[in-house]
Design goal:
Layout lengths: L13 E2 L11 H8 L3 H4 L6 H11 L6 E4 L1 H13 L9 E5 L5 H9 L2 E5 L9 H7 L4 E7 L11 H10 L5 E5 L3 H4 L13 E6 L12 E4 L2 H8 L9 H11 L2 H25 L2 E2 L6 E5 L4 H10 L2 E2 L1 E2 L9 E5 L3 H18 L1
Parallel strand pairs: 1-11, 3-4, 3-5, 5-6, 6-7
Antiparallel strand pairs: 2-8, 7-8, 9-10, 10-13, 12-13
Helix pairs in contact: 1-10, 3-10, 4-5, 11-13, 12-13
The protein binds pyridoxal-5'-phosphate.
The site of pyridoxal-5'-phosphate has 13 residues, from helix 4.
């Protein structure tokens, strides 16, 4: 498959299938949106202040940040910049699997060649195979830390080793969509590794998925070449004011992070009770291996309007589903369904 098929539009129940923040955004965001006036909505949006606030949150200068319409747009811009065929060379995108599927599709859109590295059975990062797959045609190495769909983190040292090995014309992309949950980031390393671009999003920890805002962080000259592939006013004024309001309410984020930790503990205990394997996750979701019981679980939950994501067809993920572990109350609802469905199929 070379194009992305969006998951079905399921908005009539509990959405635990797209790693969103089911607690929603800070009330301050709603206030900021309500305060938007005709003069703001009527004009193209200004980015300087929002970029400064985001840069300060990331601990970098403003010229190291490009705001994008969701991190998805940043990934597409990166693909367009690095993976178009030029001078008879077909650029290669290296993707350690299982990975965020958008990397695959954006590589195809840009015209690059996908080079997949298959996972270790425990989903620990396959550093040696990744290093061995780098060629003179490698132009992007797509990494995600912590990874989606596994929730497993990779060592920062592995990122450094890859950045040292790639060709001069290449970049290493470190997708940190879930970094807040892991409490670890490559950003402090960026001055030493100008060929690394970090991707961040406000969709997950900050609960702004519907507004679409993310960022690329990296060396100014490297980012400049990617910036040209981002439409000039792609981040709208609602996202511009929302991100500033969200950053001003870190207590809201901290409370969500606390609930995510508790949710994961509850889910692990429920899996242990039901004899299901899972990966210990550094994100706001967990990959659970229920084997031949996965289909029943996904269907049983959907029948009760709780949505989880069957990941069985992803490399290394046969028999696995991914479930969001955000608000404790929501995790408890899913666990009750899991216990009920598994009781029936045992
Ligand atoms: C690894 C990863 N990167 C990027 C994104 C997209 O983020 P955004 O909502 O900012 O486009 C997601 C969303 O699920 C993701 O899992």
């Amino acid at each position: 498959m070379t194009h992305y098929e969006k998951p079905p539009e399921l908005y009539d129940g509990l959405r635990l299938h797209q790693n969103e923040n089911t607690a929603g955004c800070s009330p301050r965001v709603l206030e900021a949106l309500a305060a938007l006036g005709p003069n703001q909505i009527g004009f193209y949006p200004p980015y300087a202040t929002a970029t400064e606030k985001c840069a300060s949150y990331f601990g970098v200068d403003s010229d190291r940040v490009v705001l994008t319409n969701g991190l998805d747009e940043g990934i597409m811009a990166l693909a367009v910049r690095y993976l178009r065929q030029r001078d008879g060379v077909v650029p290669e995108a290296l993707v350690p699997e299982p990975a965020f599927e958008i990397f695959r599709f954006d590589t195809a859109v840009a015209g690059g060649r996908l080079v997949q590295v298959m996972p270790n059975p425990d989903f620990s990062f396959p550093l040696e195979p990744v290093l061995a797959a780098i060629t003179p045609e490698t132009r992007v190495v797509f990494l995600t830390n912590p990874n989606n769909p596994t929730g497993v983190s990779m060592p920062l040292e592995a990122i450094r080793a890859i950045a040292r090995r790639v060709p001069r014309e290449a970049v290493v992309f470190v997708d940190e969509a879930y970094a807040e949950f892991a409490g670890r980031t490559f950003i402090p390393d960026l001055p030493s590794f100008p060929n690394v671009i970090v991707g961040r999003t406000f969709s997950k920890a900050f609960g702004l998925a519907g507004l679409r805002i993310g960022a690329l962080v990296g060396a100014p000259d490297v980012l400049d070449s990617v910036r040209h592939a981002v439409p000039v006013y792609s981040v709208n004024i609602a996202a511009v004011v929302a991100v500033q309001a969200a950053l001003a309410d870190m207590d809201h984020v901290r409370e969500y992070l606390r609930q995510v930790q508790q949710s994961k503990r509850l889910l692990y205990a429920a899996c242990d009770r039901n004899g299901l394997e899972y990966r210990s996750s550094d994100a706001n979701f967990v990959l659970v291996c229920a084997g031949d019981r996965t289909a029943d679980l996904v269907k049983g939950a959907a029948d009760r309007r709780i949505y989880i994501r069957d990941r069985s067809t992803e490399p290394g993920c046969a028999g696995c589903f991914r479930v969001g572990t955000g608000l404790v109350e929501h995790t408890e609802r899913f666990i009750a369904v899991m216990d009920e469905v598994l009781c029936g199929v045992r």
